[in-house]
């Protein structure tokens, strides 16, 4: 199955309101993990949802994202952080905690953030101010 279809499956079943959605989500994530070459990290970030009652599954998505090259995952995050902060503010905050608790990631993120557009910089600044 293509990565686009797998990510669509993740998004469609991320609230896990039924056993079928749980199975569909798990199977899609497992299949994505088998071949990570063309995974759209931006779309994968947008799978995160604060309304999912199965927090451990969302943690699985976070850990999967963290398995990619740090620069690629941080760039993808910067590209979608405005939307992610609106759609999943809790997970956006958690991701930022994790970035800022890892010194190499923190320095790289800070450097990359300087090149981001003003709206993205403001969103990240707001997230960090809320964490304090």
Query: What coarse outline follows from CA principal-axis ratios?
Result: globular
Q: Structural class of the helices, strands and pairings?
A: mainly alpha
Number of domains: 1
- What share of residues are in beta strands? under 5%
**H/E series:** HHHHHHHH
End-to-end separation in angstroms reads 43 Å
Integer average pLDDT: 93
Q: Which ranges are low-confidence, i.e. pLDDT below 50, for 5 or more consecutive residues?
A: none
Description:
With 132 residues, the chain is mostly helical. Helix content is 77%, strand content 0%. It has helices at 3-13, 19-34, 41-45, 55-66, 70-87, 89-100, 103-115, 118-131. Helix 1 packs antiparallel against helix 2 (19-34), helix 5 (70-87) crosses helix 7 and helix 5 (70-87) crosses helix 8 (118-131). The radius of gyration is 15 Å and the shape is globular.
Main attributes of the structure:
132 residues; mainly alpha; 8 helices
Concise overview:
The chain is an all-alpha fold and 132 residues long. It has helices spanning 3-13, 19-34, 41-45, 55-66, 70-87, 89-100, 103-115, 118-131.
Helices and strands in order:
Blueprint: H1 3-13, H2 19-34, H3 41-45, H4 55-66, H5 70-87, H6 89-100, H7 103-115, H8 118-131
